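User: I'm preparing a small set of examples for a lab meeting where we compare how different chains pack in three dimensions. I only have the primary sequence for this one, and I'd like the structure in token form so I can line it up with the others. Please keep the answer compact; I'll paste it straight into my notes.
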Amino acid sequence: MPISRFLPWLTLASGLLAVLAPWLGQPALFYTTKPLTTVLILAYAWQRGHGAPMRPWIVAGLAASLAGDVALIWPQQGFLPGLVSFLVAHLCYLWAFTRVQRLAAWPWAFLGYGLLASAILRRLWPGVPEALQAPVVVYVLCLCAMAAQSLVLAKLSFTPANRILGLGGLLFVISDACLATNKFAGPAPLAALLVLPTYWAAQWCIASWLTPAARD
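Assistant: Understood. Below is the structure token output for the 216-residue chain.
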């Protein structure tokens, strides 16, 4: 029986262990399962969408995300490298999405996410160190552009795969907003609990966009 049948369950188990590991006092388990979960999502994407023009960019985005996951195991020293890695990931995803639909083909999506980006930055700004202000602005704008383009696809081509993609974009924004709030606007235990589940759900949704039946 191919291991691909077990990938959803393996991913769920690895992600659950990563979320629980800090609460169980098992840092080694966290350091192992956090990148492993993204590796499993990358394996899931790897087997899908062969021959589709967006596939290399989705795979590249997941690989960049994996680099970011590893960097953020060290929250202080790895924050900037992690930020850059995820910035690359969002640019890869954005490019992949525009292989299917013109950028901002439904402008309302960009207007809505632009307003959301402004609200996020307004909330975070007092706590963002001066040296990180420019990188954070660029990152939030790229993140919301990626999510907006995923919504463009969901709106203009309302297929199951595109609806899942639109959800993935929204979940990525929620995850990063929780992470940034926890880092720059004071500790928020509930936010910390939401970061990884919404992040991996977002990545799984984006990987699921490469639907074999439709694109292979």
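A couple of notes for your slides: The chain has a mean pLDDT of 93. The CA atoms of residues 21 and 27 lie 6 Å apart.

User: Perfect, thanks.
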